[in-house]
Amino acid sequence: MRVLAVIAIIAILTSVAFAEVFVTVYRCDEKTPLTPRDVNTPRVYSDIMVGTRLVFVVSSDGPPKAREGWWGGLQTTWDDWERGKLFGRGYDPNSNSYTYRGSTLPAAGRLIGDHEPVAKFIKSAKFKTIGFDLATMYEAVAGDWFVLDYVAEQTGLCSVGLFDWALNLTGPTETFSFTHVPSRDFDGNGVVDLADFVSLASRWRLPVDPNTDGAGTCDLDADGVIGPSDLGMFSEFWLERTDCTSPAAEPNVPPAGL
Predict the structure, then answer these.
(1) Does residue 230 share a domain with residue 105?
(2) Among the four residues 66, 97, 145, 233, which has the most C-beta atoms within 10 Å?
(3) Residue 224 near residue 205 (C-beta atoms within 8 A)
(4) 198 lies in the same domain as 239
(5) Which domain holds residue 42?
(6) Alpha-carbon span 39 to 32, nearest angstrom
(7) What is residue 87's predicted lDDT score, i.e. its pLDDT?
(8) pLDDT in tens, 64-97
(9) 41-53 average pLDDT score
(10) What are the beta bridge partners of residue 50?
């Protein structure tokens, strides 16, 4: 009996010791994890197009280690905020903490009196970061705690940090990095499809005038003319979605060439 008791205590302590908070980055369908660029750098992701919406889910494989609950956040630097932004869901101006209640999930705990799980927009002067503060209730359990949307708004590099104030008071414990590339969704319907291919084909071998073509729509390699390189770069994102709220497109066969 004594041996069984010791084993039970060890099992409990082990489960608590290995409980951790982690982030999963999904595509806009909220089911498909975004693919890392390399298996050796799992938090550096494959390129995404400007206009792409991703979904960040903060989860834990155990209850909060602290009696008061877990407190952390998802934030970017002030500079990165120009390129990629985080958005909460279901903002409630009447809540005690002005929280985005749609971004707090059941496993993060429930409203008790004036206290509730928190997903609150914040701009930090201390760390020069901007994003969301996140906090569970003490009764949080293993599972998904928070959900936030991310939108790539400009080309360039952007990183999102996971902050865990119980582990690190000086910076993020993990960093998730993205490279935003020019969109191939030329008509903005949420998916790279035949209509976008027609747009590129109609400009084939034509020079690009930055004064009339905006940022060089279809000129993906920015060399001033629509050519084979642009077609190759376009095909890499064939039928990829930027936003899953838009209807699916036909056809399902990629372009073979011009």
Answers:
(1) no
(2) 145
(3) no
(4) yes
(5) 21-181
(6) 17
(7) 96
(8) 987 789 999 999 999 999 999 999 999 988 877 7
(9) 95
(10) none
